[in-house]
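Q: Hi! First time doing this. I have a protein sequence and I read that you can turn it into a structure. Is that right? Here it is:
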Amino acid sequence: MRLDVATVLVQWSAGGLLGCWVTTRRRLVGVGYGWLLRSVFVVLAFGGAAAGLAESTQTVGAVVRDAGALVMACGALGALLVSVVRRSAGVAGERSFNPTLDLLAPLAGLVALFGAAAAVGGAYPLSAARLLAGGLLLGLVTDAMLLGHWYLVQPGLPRDPIREIVRLCAPAWLLDVSLLLVPTGMLSVLSGSINDGYGGLLGAMWVVSAITTIALLWVTWRALAEPYYSAVMAATGLLYLTILMSFGTDVLARALLAR
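A: Yes, that's right. Below is the predicted 3D structure, encoded as structure tokens:
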């Protein structure tokens, strides 16, 4: 299997846009948060498609990935435009934005990741499962961090939305790490069967990243249990670090397995 920029951007945006729907479906967070997430992940999705189209070789899987990424970006952009048009209705009015529209983009992203699994190689079911799990982890952690910032804009917002996203990050982490350990996986790197090129240092870094990711999520959850408003800001800061560790957990592992 191989690691490429296009696939990372596509899986990141697919997971993030799914997390967008998880939050918008509650109709609690202001319309601007949806605008923020859709805008961020539209850029990532278009970037993934552009990176894929720039590759010198195009397999069937790569074509499906790139086409799916374009449809995903257009779907999120369409949802963004509808939300802007209906902004005067707020999030709960009769003519307000229908959160179901936010499902169209991640569904296209799912198709894109099925294509990406064929493009990166390896055992197809395992490759597809790893891409889906990694996309969930990266996307949900990013959503949680951006939602934490949104509490500055909407300070009266209940903590249920950010707690929900942080809570979903934990099973995403467990699924991603478990799949990365399935042979041929990170156990082969840790045992030395796959040489990381640095005497086991990169394998150890992956272990640290994986453990630190779940530890930071637990600390973030504990911070959100505090009644003070500053606790949300502390949780947001912790989520910045969690994003970095999540990339170490997922992307570093796939880079080592691609050696």
